[in-house]
Amino acid sequence: MLDTNRIPEHVAVIMDGNGRWAKNRGLPRLAGHNAGMKSMIEVVRRANDLGMKHLTVYAFSTENWKRSVEEVSGIFKLLIRYVESELKELMDNNVRIRILGDYSPLPPDARKAVDKAIANTAGNTGLQFNIALNYGGRAEILRAVRELAEEAADGDLAPEEITEEMISERLYTGARETGCGDPELIIRTSGEERLSNFLLWQCAYSEFVFTDVLWPDFSPEEFEKCIEKYQKRDRRFGGR
Ligand code: IPE
Ligand code: IPE
Ligand code: MG
Q: Would the CB of 60 count as within 6 Å of ligand 2?
């Protein structure tokens, strides 16, 4: 049974398996991404109902540009469509949207839809829904390192003064951006057991739950099962 009094504050999800789901049905890959958006909306709803503070989803990686132009632009079109159709419900449910990653290379209409969702939901205090878009863990760490190197080059910072906290602060999960910090739990669907450049710094002590379910088949009940597994784990952080 899920212990609703012990819901992790921050859960991150690698939403994988849309393409295989479509292939299994003889459908185009974009039909899988469309079905995946529907799963995402249901999971957001459940996370909010459970009183979770932060839900972070991996929607598009810095490596996903390697896919066909057709697939990439289709994914962004779906993003626009769902952001627009769901914005009212997000507002009604007090959900706040924020982005992890540099979404400036996205097509202008996708950028505009994202900006609008961020601005409209900025005052909401319920679930913080963080979307990793054109996100890569290495790019994120590089960005933080460059910022610190600039401060050092300007003579404002001595290298030995750099702390782990200073790096954490400069990541998308830091207080200056989403403020979600490190996830207690990272879920990956579709049977793949790798991070694919997701939250590399932040996952140091995260618990991992892998499930064979393909993302479009991932239901709120599956989501709760993953949290239940997490609740049975013994987190030690290197202590005894
Ligand atoms: C995850 O599903 C969605 C994105 C990466 C955008 P995939 O599209 O990776 O699905 P598979 O892994 O090919 O089944
Ligand atoms: C990771 O999935 C990225 C997202 C879910 C957005 P991929 O399908 O891109 O990862 P690989 O290629 O299997 O490692
Ligand atoms: Mg995949």
A: yes
